[in-house]
Amino acid sequence: MKPAKKVLLDLVKSSNISVRSGDELIGRVNAAVAADNKAREEKKDELLRRKPELTAIPRTELAAHLEVNLWDVLHTLGRATALSGRGAGRGLAEHWGALKYNQALAGGPGGFLGLTDEGRQIAEQYKNLQSGELGTGFALTLAEHLLRRRFPEHSVTIVPADTALRAGWALTSRDKGSKVGYRYRPQYFAEVWRPGEPSLVVPVACKGNHGNAAASAVQLASASVHAEAVHVGAWNETPALLFSTELPTEGTVAVHALQARGRGGWLTGGGQGPGANHDAEPVQMNLMPGIQPPPGDGTTPEPVPGCQVRPEEQAWFQQTLGHTAAAGLMAFTGSGRATGRHLTERQGSRRFDGFEHAASGSVQDIGHELLGESYAGTDHVFRLNGPRVEAFSGVETELFRVLRAGGVERYQAIVHATRHTRPRLAWDETWGGPVSVHADGSVLAIRLLAGSRRQRG
Questions:
Q1: Which residues, listed in sequence order, are joined to residue 430 by a DSSP beta bridge?
Q2: Partner residues linked to 97 by β-bridges
Q3: Residue range 217-245, pLDDT digits in tens
Q4: Most buried residue, 35, 123, 225, 278, by CB count within 10 Å?
């Protein structure tokens, strides 16, 4: 077992992961789709809708080997899960779950990331949880990297899909309204945006496994079903990104990635009224579920299950994405009221309103100066190989004040103007540990507590 300080030092070291995308992978996924279709036909089950054509991602956008830092990946995972509502923390402390993986991966032969002894032990007991969560971290890291290369003049924001969709649709039996009645959905949306302009929505479906390339092919076949379940604009014109992360117990991390191309996904509003006003209050709609196929042979087919953002709803959906992103950032700081103000009731605003106190397990009540900038946020203390460790998550103090007051438009203007200068990952000597700063202004930092530093390591 490594000394605690060595673990923290390793978090800022760069390592490589393999990225696999090509004709061989497409062939394996097509074979997995055919096998699933055959099994469903034999059981007389209905065949699942999938993205009609998957293609490889060009190496100019996603290289075969990509350099990553584990602390940056865990930061991405933490930000993505801040609104998940899956654990006992009831929202505000969700993102701390990412910290359980700070010893699960390390650089191995040739500088490639692989599971450590601890990561293999976790896999034995929590196999699906570990592969799913780490798969999310790697997938979203790659999605942001790819889209920023593809759209260098834009910003990229990751938003949890279920939270965003709940502003318009009743997804499950506990939601009020006409039920979507379809369990397949992408896990996230990547919004590609510039202030005051239409944005592009790219559904992201991500999975993970502790198996091999064959398991990833099966997962990508399934991911294609999830990505198909949300259309932004016309039928089958919404682009999508699909990822399956392979975390073998022996070997190195490999991310299998494919895409679905499409000319849709742009929230242009179609000339249907004014554009998005992110400073307006979040609006809860009650939209009828279903995706409308195009007419054929003079008839209009019945809608198929899923969610479709039509032209008249696009300004609202862009506004919803901005508010949902702001809510996730505020949840990352531990501020319940600032989180709830950016959500509708069905999205969970009430779940956050009552948690601005210590009993929540996470409360926005502290600030730190990190890498020369001031941050407001919350902390979490736990043990790492015995010594006590403090982790801090937050956002730049100026941005926190802006979002707490509801100024999403101003926040976006500031963040977009500084998108090339803000992202940083370094060991902060004054703080005493690794610090990750993302383009959205969020920060994740960790250090040994005073007194623990005198222990071994």
A1: none
A2: none
A3: 999 999 999 999 999 999 999 999 999 99
A4: 278
Query: How far is it between the farthest Cα atoms of the chain?
Result: 79
| pLDDT at residue 455 is higher than 60 | no
- The answer to whether the CB of 29 falls within 8 A of the CB of 217 is yes
Q: Where do we find the tokens 């889209």?
A: 147
Whole-angstrom CA distances from 287 to 275, 295, 307, 317 are: 19, 21, 9, 12
pLDDT value at residue 145: 97
Burial of 318 (0-12, 13-18, 19+ CB in 10 A): buried
Mean pLDDT of 393-402: 96
CB 336 within 8 A of CB 296: no
Distance CA 7, CA 457 (A): 9
Give the amino acid at 348: G
Place of tokens 């950032």: 329
Task: Give the 3-state secondary structure of residue 276.
Answer: coil
Query: Which H or E run contains 451?
Result: none
E strand or H helix that includes residue 174: none
- What gap in Å lies between CA 378 and CA 358, rounded to an integer? 11
CA dihedral 354, 328, 283, 341 (to 10 degrees): 40
Does the pTM surpass 0.85? The reply is: yes
Buried b (16+ CB within 10 A) or exposed e, 142-162: bbbbbbbebeeebbbbbbbbb
> Cα 5 to the chain's mean position, in Å?
29
Tell me which H or E stretch contains 131. helix 127-150
Cα–Cα distance, 386 to 398 (Å, whole number): 36
Q: Give 124's pLDDT tier (boundaries 50, 70, 90).
A: confident
Token match 């803000």: residue? 422
Which of 275, 250, 172, 221 lies closest to 26, judged by CA?
A: 221
String of DSSP letters for 295-360:
PBTTB-PPPBSSEEE-GGGHHHHHHHHHHHHHHHHHHHHT-HHHHHTTS-TTTTHHHHHT--SGGG
Taking the C-alpha atoms of residue 55 and residue 350, their distance in angstroms, rounded to an integer, is 42
Sign for the CA dihedral angle at 57, 63, 65, 67 comes to negative
CB 446 within 8 A of CB 8: yes
